[in-house]
Design goal:
Layout: H1 13-16, E1 69-71, H2 85-93, E2 100-102, H3 113-122, E3 127-128, E4 135-136, H4 150-158, E5 165-173, E6 184-191, H5 201-204, E7 207-217, E8 225-231, E9 240-245, E10 250-253, E11 285-298, H6 311-314, E12 327-339, E13 349-355, E14 361-367, E15 373-384, E16 389-399, E17 404-410, H7 430-437
């Protein structure tokens, strides 16, 4: 299934009326697939499971599900049509230890009613900017619930519902081939302006979110703070970023926090635009919507944030411990990003697999300039059901050539995400970095 390239395909009233009928309110196919291996969407998780209390780690609502089968190197040919190229490569690269445990498909994705209403409302007005590097006439909802091109799918991910505010304390590790690692601990704060109740495109003033990240450990990195103001149209106005350096006690502009510059304390194992699976301007790539496909993807990975696990249980040599991830068969949008001839990036080509129910990117295959598959990214998503938001609990970026990986988002040994916090815009000013850096 391919689609013609255009900057904006008008959506008819009849198409918009499909949202909440044969389509989910965010644009996924509501019906089951032909053989019933993907069930119909029934609203997803609407209320937290019994016993859950806000502030604790998320109780697994599907803890009683049994593994249906495991995909290994020896039997992968049987499932090849439902595997990403990245997963095929991981199975071939680590034949003795890598596997995918496949569970029943649970279409758990949900969002608040106001997100559904906003999606229906802006579907007729939202459009890409003339160069495709921004979105106009949109706020709160998914701008392109019935997409006709790759850029629209990408923007649905960038503008998806993740709550109004969020705070998290997470760890990151980049194990050596032998399994040794040093934990980097972050304190992250998000003010997700785009989704705020009552927000309008004009009130956004081209800023969709504020993000602040402080390094808490190890001691040699502690105290560094990154601040980002993310823009809706980055071609018109680049993202604004600042860094606080505790050694110099100075705040500096950080224009290099973008594209393929190395991510914070990542040991060169991910680029800045791989954070959150993909972030920032799409301007360096041509985006092609390949279509929709049924594949095995990481989904409902509550076990990976369970407090019963230690980080050492998850962080094993070569790849994370594959006893704990959960994979399910889901329909995903497939988008190919090809580097423009006049642009520079360490990834020449990328293939994105995006959940039809939430617009969360779940898998990315990244190719080097020789067109060799280089890195595979997985977003281990859960429904944060206290706010009805599908987001990752762990991101893993595997380097097939180095035999290493980066895991970011570990929270088993700390407090999980806090969506009840509220920040003032003044908390995300450069002057706030100076105050916090001098505490």
């Amino acid at each position: 299934m391919t689609f013609p390239l255009s900057l904006h395909a008008e959506i008819s009233a009849d198409d918009i009326a499909r949202l909440g009928n044969d389509l989910t309110p965010l644009g996924g196919e509501k019906a089951a697939n032909a053989d019933g291996t993907i069930p119909a969407w029934d609203g997803g998780i609407m209320t937290p499971p019994a016993g859950y209390k806000p502030g604790q780690h998320y109780i697994d609502p599907y803890a009683d599900d049994a593994i249906q089968f495991s995909i290994t190197k020896s039997n992968m040919s049987k499932y090849a049509d439902k595997l990403s190229e990245g997963h095929k490569a991981l199975l071939n690269t680590y034949p003795d230890t890598y596997k995918l445990n496949v569970y029943p498909t649970r279409r758990s994705a949900s969002a608040p009613e106001r997100i559904y209403a906003a999606t229906s409302r802006i579907a007729a007005t939202a459009k890409l900017t003339s160069d495709g590097n921004g979105v106009e006439n949109a706020a709160i909802g998914i701008p392109f619930p019935i997409p006709s091109q790759g850029l629209e799918v990408l923007w649905n991910h960038l503008l998806r519902w993740r709550g109004d505010y969020a705070e998290r304390n997470v760890a990151q590790a980049a194990p050596t081939r032998g399994g040794g690692y040093t934990l980097v601990q972050f304190s992250d704060q998000f003010n997700l302006l785009y989704s705020h109740s009552g927000m309008t495109a004009d009130e956004l003033n081209n800023t969709i979110l504020y993000f602040k990240q402080e390094v808490k450990a190890p001691a040699r990195l502690a105290g560094g703070i990154l601040l980002v103001h993310e823009t809706m149209n980055q071609k018109a106005e680049n993202r604004k970023a600042w860094l606080y350096n505790p050694g110099q006690r100075r705040v500096r502009r950080a224009p290099n926090v973008a594209f393929d510059n190395p991510g914070t304390a990542s040991d060169g194992m991910r680029t800045n635009d791989q954070f959150d699976m993909y972030n920032g301007s799409p301007e360096r790539y041509d985006w092609k919507l390949v279509g929709k496909k049924e594949i095995y993807v990481p989904y409902n990975n509550y076990k990976l944030q369970a407090p019963s696990l230690k980080y050492s249980d998850i962080l094993t040599p070569l790849h994370i411990n594959q006893a704990y991830p959960r994979y399910e068969l889901h329909r995903v949008w497939v988008v190919e990003a090809s580097l423009k001839s006049d642009a520079r990036h360490i990834y020449k080509r990328r293939t994105f697999y995006i959940d039809e129910d939430s617009w969360q990117i779940l898998i990315v295959d990244q190719y080097d300039n020789r067109d060799q598959l280089w890195r595979v990214s997985e977003g281990f998503a859960i429904n944060y059901y206290d706010v009805q938001s599908v987001w990752t609990t762990l991101e893993v970026h595997s380097d097939l050539q180095a035999g290493r990986y980066l895991a970011i988002g570990l929270c088993n040994e700390t407090t999980p995400y806090n969506f009840k916090v509220k920040f003032d815009d003044s908390d995300f000013l450069p002057s706030a970095l100076r105050r916090e850096g001098h505490r």
